[in-house]
Amino acid sequence: MKVWGMLLGGFPRSRRLRHVLRDVERGTAPYYVAEAEVDRFASQVIGAQLAAGFPVVVDGMADWHDIFRPFVDAWRNVTVDGLLRYFDNNFFYRIPVFTDEPDARSFVLSRRVYRFRDAADPAGVKVVMPGPVTFAYMSKNLSGLSTEELAERIAFLLREEARKALDAGASLIQVDEPFLADIDATPDHARLAVDLVNSIVDGFGDRAVLSLYYGVPEPGVYEVLLDVKARYLMLDVADAPARASSLLKDKGAGGHVLALGVVDARRIIDDDESRIIELVKGVAGGSEELVLTTSTWMDLIPYRYALRKTIILGRIVESVASSLGADVWSIWG
To answer: Rounded to whole angstroms, how far apart are CA atoms 198 and 286?
Structure first.
């Protein structure tokens, strides 16, 4: 058995980066200053992950306003309007508004791979995209398409994003569908998501992650999701450990490699390492591979705590592997 760690997604902005981006938005600093500061920040975030030994890293996406915005800016026939609370977090996103069938003017993820792959060496680069169901259901649809048709078009564009990212050298493609962990999600939503995610990752499912966070899916939803063709299935264990454990013991992983969100990315307090070890022991028996990750993106807590959580996750990977008699897969060998 091998155990390895990775961060799930975005990182909070440092104080310096916040000030620089604000100056650029106000027109008191040129755009290239922000670009340089984002590169500097990403190098710090990647460096923290390399220090923790993670074999796959993210750049932190600190220049993303939210998970949807980079794609909104890159596509035709979609804009933003108004703010809405992002699930049950003290965080708001600008609502995408689709006025017609979306079409790509440019691509988002491949540029990031080219930009940060040298800084990530010897680790691989993971890119993250919103899932088509979460994207469609959390947008305002004025396109004339049904929500399902809009989600299908979004999935088509995201498949092209994924292909170009892989061609650029990405190691993993992560598709985030937090809507499916919400209490309002139904098995029908899950079936649509499975069909569309499978269309995105067709041909490279062994390098794909489906991530579900801000909750644990209902059993009926989770059972449908086991048909997804992504190799890795991520669950937010930290949000509801007992529910997650019960779900996994009852339904299993359906042949997927589990990525367990054991480090709570929504709280600044240190995680209980011994409790995590016991939790993982209860659900990971017989697995050949196990990924430990954060419960969600890190951008909900201050920068210095996110750095600390990164190091804590690295330590927990080592402790869990030791307790299971497993090998650690890291950049250190």
So the answer is: 26
